[in-house]
Design brief:
Elements lengths: L1 H13 L6 H19 L3 E2 L2 E2 L2 H24 L6 H11 L6 H7 L2 H12 L3 H35 L4 H9 L9 H6 L6 H15 L2 H24 L17 H6 E4 L7 E4 L4 H17 L5 H13 L16
Antiparallel strand pairs: 1-2, 3-4
Helix pairs in contact: 2-3, 2-7, 2-11, 3-4, 3-7, 4-7, 5-7, 6-7, 7-8, 11-13, 13-14
Length: 324
């Protein structure tokens, strides 16, 4: 139990207390969410809806639901359509992301409270509670933005409120955990996200529609990575290589590396699940075709890593607060 508290405390420090984590997690979440919705078979009133249309509608709603999420987290009275949807979603228990998972297992807050009480510093404990809640609120805004967008589209397309809330919750439900998951979670910092990601990805790939969406993402990723690689320019020391080739393999598979910004390019994180699998395979394919330093062994090894990277969707190297 003590080890579990330490693991969860480190998890909170590494996520919500990392300044860039909320935005990075939001960028990954929206990619994963849109891929999952596009590849799912969603029925409303017994008929299947166009999930491509639903995904597009959700993507265009993010700017609107961002403001609604801020209002809901701050506890303001709902004044608009999307603020009302955000309030409905929260009331129906549709929030089950990182913020909810960490707040349910708030070992960090419990630890500080215990120390403060033993030291006779009740005011210190209260101040810390307010600080932690404020920090968690930032992550909650970004998480609610993506979920409120999905919820609002489902409601506008005719899905009943309770069904829409359940659908939104299960886009990534960290509240699901079996007995062994809880035990192993004491050792593995982000086991719940890993288990959920494995479940959702495998669920999609077992369907024809999910496989088609994955194949389409892979073809698009091939074209995009090949273009970004060429745009990166020739390496200064080895003219056989492109500058993109000098980045580490794990970095190329985990980020869209844009050749802007001078010596250090702009890196946009790739979403977990289908997006990362498709992008990683595309990177491996292009490297095996164009990179002269690649052989069949390298290509096979990196292809395997790309396919299995979803088994550990949140590694410390992905969210290292000391990088950048």
């Amino acid at each position: 139990r003590g080890l579990g508290k330490l693991t969860r405390t480190l998890g909170r420090l590494w996520t919500q207390f990392s300044p860039h984590f909320p935005l990075v997690n939001f960028i990954r979440d929206l990619q994963q969410q849109l891929a999952y919705i596009a590849g799912s078979d969603i029925k409303i009133g017994g008929r299947s809806i166009s999930t491509a249309k639903a995904a597009w509608m959700i993507a265009t709603r993010y700017p609107k639901t961002f403001g609604a999420a801020i209002s809901e987290v701050l506890g303001r009275t709902p004044t608009g359509k999307y603020t009302g949807y955000a309030r409905e979603l929260a009331a129906a228990g549709g929030m089950s992301g990182f913020t909810k998972m960490l707040s349910d297992e708030d070992a960090l807050k419990d630890f500080v409270k215990d120390v403060a009480q033993k030291a006779g510093k009740a005011k210190t404990s209260l101040a810390w509670d307010k600080f932690v809640d404020a920090v968690a609120g930032v992550s909650e805004v970004f998480e609610m933005t993506t979920r409120a967008a999905a919820y609002s589209v489902m409601r506008d397309m005719g899905m009943p409120g309770d069904q829409a809330a359940n659908f939104t919750k299960n886009l990534m439900n960290f509240s699901k955990a079996g007995t062994e998951t809880k035990r192993l979670g004491n050792l593995y910092m982000f086991l719940k996200p890993a288990v959920q990601d494995i479940y959702l990805t495998s669920k999609l790939l077992r369907t024809r529609k999910g496989a088609v969406v994955f194949a389409s993402m892979y073809v698009g990723a091939l074209a995009l990575y090949a273009m970004l690689r060429e745009m990166s320019g020739d390496d200064d020391e080895d003219k056989r290589l492109k500058k993109m080739d000098t980045r580490t393999a794990s970095e190329r598979r985990g980020y869209f590396i844009l050749p802007f910004g001078g010596e250090e390019p702009v890196r946009v994180p790739v979403g977990f699940g289908l997006p990362r699998m498709a992008w990683g395979l595309a990177v491996t394919t292009v490297d095996a075709w164009r990179n002269p330093d690649y052989d069949a062994y390298d290509a096979a090894g990196n292809a395997l890593k790309s396919m299995t990277s979803t088994l550990s969707p949140l590694q410390l190297s992905d969210i290292n607060m000391f990088k950048n």
